[in-house]
Specification:
Layout lengths: L3 H15 L1 H27 L12 E5 L5 H9 L9 H5 L3 H6 L7 H4 L37 H4 L21 H22 L5 E3 L7 H7 L4 E6 L2 H19 L7 H27 L8 E5 H6 L1 H12 L5 H13 L19 H7 L1 H7 L8
Parallel strand pairs: 1-2, 1-3, 3-4
Helix pairs in contact: 1-2
């Protein structure tokens, strides 16, 4: 099912913010979505075997963006022992589409169309994305227009309409909620079938807001929630989005009031993500045998121990080769220095005092220092 209303909202936002050319470009997405859903339907005829695959104990990596989710996901998947999605697999989730389209067309050209720096989606190096990079499975929900990724990756970011319907996923109607998780299950089946790997490891930070729906759909699933100080995640996350906007559209082409409104909305929903998980966890709605909370700082202080703790919890069998990679990474990160630039919270119209007030429960729960500099 395609959310046509959201498509219309995207196109309106594109026209109002950037004009007719970008609005026409945005309208192309509807045709692409329709074509991909047709290919997905064809999979049941062309590759019927995929539908017999079982999704066994999938592992979901959740948490506020910039909490170490990418680091842990790529750390765990670097030796290709689990079923993951490369960026090209996200762009072509249909097995039939991969067989028909892939030999003749590089979909990365479509993704990078219009970028000021066509060599990278995020040119500051804060998130390396290319055709063969292992990417976050949250992006699969773009094909249903049911993820917060739809917001900042499209002109929907600058829409006058509220984004609540794709932010608060667990609050959606049952039919829509279940349709999205069933869609995800079928994508997982395709990838297990295509790769021959038996366990899924999925990075889905925004799906922290649909954790209950995922737990219902995957009753044997394991959920790892990474948490980091808001003084680290908030400016890093907003800086990442600012970099993307600059590369995709050019900051000078975005009206200042719309840009600042975006930052404020993004901040509020980031707060909502922290709060939603906290309320479920504190309320006893997330069983400890299925959900594991770990601080990002544990990766920094003792990576090998944190890694062992998480793979044991998730019941993952990992090779000696991967464990050796972990030991090497633990040694390298002792001298790691951040290469990308983080912009201060104040540049986004957000004060430290506001963060301390809005997220007091996070600082209290995990003991993050309140005087830490972002």
């Amino acid at each position: 099912m395609i959310n046509f209303r959201l498509h219309v909202t995207m196109i309106k936002a594109a026209y109002k913010t950037f004009g007719l050319r970008i609005a026409l470009g945005t309208s192309v997405k509807l045709g692409v979505d329709l074509a991909m859903h047709a290919f997905l339907a064809m999979d049941y005829v062309v590759f019927p075997g995929f539908n017999k695959v079982k999704v066994h104990k999938p592992v979901f990596i959740l948490g506020h963006p910039r909490s170490g989710t990418t680091f842990f996901h790529r750390l765990l998947t670097q030796t290709d022992e689990f079923a993951t999605f490369k960026f090209v697999d996200i762009l072509l989730p249909s097995l039939t589409a991969r067989a028909v389209i892939r030999p003749f067309f590089n979909p990365m050209r479509f993704v990078k169309w219009g970028l000021e720096d066509p060599t990278a989606v995020f040119p500051d190096g804060s998130h390396v994305t290319d055709e063969e990079s292992v990417e976050e499975e949250e992006l699969l929900f773009l094909w249903r227009n049911d993820t917060q990724m739809n917001i900042f990756l499209t002109p929907l970011a600058f829409s006058d309409a509220d984004w609540s319907e794709i932010v608060f996923n667990d609050a959606q109607g049952e039919r829509r909620r279940k349709a999205s998780t069933r869609f995800l299950r079928q994508c997982f089946k395709r990838q297990i079938y295509a790769t021959g790997r038996t366990r899924i490891v999925a990075k889905m930070p925004y799906s922290t807001m649909r954790i209950k729906a995922l737990m219902d759909e995957f009753p044997d699933g394991r959920f790892i929630y990474l948490v980091r100080s808001p003084f680290r995640t908030m400016p890093s996350h907003l800086s990442l989005h600012r970099t993307f906007f600059s590369n995709r559209w050019g900051l000078d082409n975005i009206p200042e009031d719309r840009l600042m409104r975006y930052y404020q909305r993004r901040y509020r929903h980031n707060v909502d993500l922290y709060r939603y998980f906290h309320e479920l966890w504190a309320g006893g709605q997330l069983p400890a045998d299925r959900v594991k909370v770990i601080l990002y700082d544990q990766f920094l202080s003792d990576l090998e121990r944190a890694f062992d703790e998480l793979v044991t919890f998730a019941e993952l069998e990992v090779s000696d080769g991967l464990r050796q990679r972990i030991r090497e990474q633990a040694e390298r990160q002792k001298s790691y220095t951040r290469k990308h630039r983080i912009i201060s919270l104040e540049a986004f119209g957000i004060s430290r005092e506001q963060v301390l007030e809005d997220l007091d429960f996070v600082f209290e729960e995990y003991g993050f220092p309140r005087d830490e500099q972002d």
